[in-house]
Structures are given as structure tokens and as C-alpha cells.
Amino acid sequence: MIGAGTFSRILDWAGRTTSVLxxxxxxxxxxxxxxxxxxxxxxxxxxxxxxxDGDKHDLLYVDGGPSSTQTxxxxxxxxxxxxxxxxxxxxxxxxxxxxxxxxxxEDIDWLVPHQANKRIIDGTGRKLKLDPxxxxxxxxxxxxxxxxxxxxxxxxxxxxxRIKPGQILLLEAMGGGFTWGSALVRW
Length: 187
Hints:
By secondary structure, this protein is an alpha+beta fold. It has one domain (2-34, 44-186): 3-Layer(aba) Sandwich (Peroxisomal Thiolase, Chain A, domain 1). It has helices at 79-101, 118-128, 139-142, 149-159; strands at 2-6, 24-28, 44-52, 60-62, 75-77, 110-113, 168-175, 179-186.
């Protein structure tokens, strides 16, 4: 599974609403099929949940495209509204994953969130009553690399030894158009 983005190509460098927040990056996770028992003891993806709300497309979008404007356009964002929806939707989709498996927030060893910004990450963690020490944060090193942010954060936490085989990880992310999702994984 590959997540990549070159937001540096679509940022309006004259404005500060997006140019100071977004970065370019790429990350990948190699998955393979394996026989399991169908329980929470299995390794791999235990459950995943994806959502979208096209009615909110104007909160985070690109205002161009070769077929509509003959340009790549610029990334546009309504920051306050994106923040509000991000914290609520991400907390909800995490609860959805927990409910689907019968697990609880205290069963999560690591929350590996979309690295949009620290305030969203902290807000989601607070809503879930998670210990801040269980949250992987790399936005200070990479910026918001969009689709690459979860794979990059996961890579860093595996490489530095925080994430170990057998641990429960909650991955969550949100994106433009207005989309959000989660995956509960036993590493």
C-alpha cells in the first residue's frame, strides 16, 4: 500500500493557509495475505473503516485540474472547519474500529494518526482518553505529508523500537474531498 503526495506543486506560496502546513513525501507498507482464525489474536488488519462526505468537499480541495481549468490549481482549505470535522470524525472512526472488534481504547498500544497538525492529533487523543505517550507524532519532522503521513510515522516508530510485533495499532487519517478512515492492526 503506497501513500504519496507532492503538495509542494499545488501550494499557493503567496498564502499562509496551506503553504506553511503541507509537505511532499512518500511511504509504503508491504502487506501479504495470511490464514488467520478470524479473532483479535490474528496478526494483520483486524478491521478497517472508510467514509466520505462530498457535501463538505469545499473544506479541503484543489481548485483546478487539467480537464477543468488547464492548470494544476492550488490546494484550498477552510482551516477551522477542517479542524472541527477532523477531531470529531477521526475520534468517531476510531470508536467504530474498536466497536467492530470489541476492543477498548486502553487495548491500543499505539495510535498512529494522520499527521495533519499537532492540535488535531492532541484533540483526537483527548477525545479517546489516550495516554499522550501512546501517540506517534512525526508532524514536527515531516510536516503534513498527506497520504504519506501514516506510513512515514509508522516507519519511524518501528525503526526506533516503539512498535513491536504483536502490538495493537490504530491507524487513522483524513483527506480532501472530505474523506476519513481507520484501520485497527495487530502488528
